[in-house]
Structures are given as structure tokens and as C-alpha cells.
Design brief:
With 136 residues, the protein is an all-alpha fold. The protein has a domain of 92 residues. The protein is built from four helices and no strands. The radius of gyration is 27 Å and the shape is extended. The chain starts with 5 loop residues before the first helix and ends in a 12-residue tail after the last helix.
């Protein structure tokens, strides 16, 4: 216990009840809300935390503000780059899968199967998806 300062032990002791109480609450909320709602909540809470940090941290000197704004900008640009790369990869993967389905349909039947044509019509809005209804 001598190797770790008393303040660190104090932080650990304070965190224990918070984790014990709010981990199950978070799990409960996760099961009741859509993931985008939770993502919006996290973004909102992080924004509030940032604003409160600017209000509470003193002295608020220019290097501190510059470093925080620089980091936020840098990570925003990294996120945009990763998002664009992911979208490009997704489009390429979908195109390869469709090409594979078309080529398999042509090889197996000599022409494109009805299933693939139905997929294309559904994408164009021509065919409604089939749903089974139970009559009362």
C-alpha cells in the first residue's frame, strides 16, 4: 500500500459504489433503447463534460485550450477518414456479393434466377416484401 498514494486508493474506493450501481442500470437502459439513442446520449454527456471542464479548470491558459481544441479537431478528422473508408469498403463488398450472386445464378440455371430478379425489383420498389399474416 505504500507504493500507491492514498489519493489513488480514495479514487478507487469512490468508484466501487458507482460501478456497482450504474453498471446494471446501464445494462437495463441498453436493453430498452435503440443504439442510436444511446450514442446520442453519450455524445450529449461528453459535450456537457467538455463545457463544464472549460468552466471549472483554472487557470485556463491558451496552451491548454489550444491542445484540447487541436485534439478534438484531429480526432474528428480521423473519424471522418475512417467513416469514409468504411463506407467505400462496404459499397465494394456489396458490389462483389451481388456480382457473385449474379454469376452463380447464370452458371447454375443458364440465366439469372427469379430470386435475384425479385431482389432487384424489391430494391427498385416494385415488389413488396412477403410477410406472413395470421388470420384471426
Amino acid at each position: 500500500m505504500n507504493a500507491i498514494e492514498a489519493a489513488c486508493w480514495g479514487y478507487l474506493i469512490v468508484c466501487i459504489p458507482v460501478v456497482v450501481v450504474f453498471a446494471p442500470v446501464g445494462s437495463f437502459l441498453r436493453s430498452h433503447f435503440h443504439r442510436l439513442v444511446l450514442a446520442g446520449l453519450v455524445i450529449f454527456l461528453d459535450s456537457v463534460t467538455l463545457v463544464l471542464a472549460y468552466i471549472l479548470v483554472r487557470p485556463l491558459n491558451p496552451p491548454l485550450v489550444g491542445a484540447s481544441v487541436g485534439l478534438i479537431t484531429e480526432f474528428f478528422l480521423v473519424f471522418l477518414a475512417l467513416s469514409g473508408a468504411g463506407e467505400t469498403l462496404l459499397v465494394r463488398t456489396e458490389q462483389k456479393e451481388m456480382e457473385k450472386k449474379y454469376s452463380m445464378g447464370k452458371v447454375q440455371n443458364g440465366s439469372v434466377s427469379d430470386e435475384l430478379l425479385d431482389i432487384d425489383r424489391a430494391d427498385e420498389g416494385g415488389v413488396e416484401p412477403v410477410t406472413s399474416a395470421v388470420a384471426n
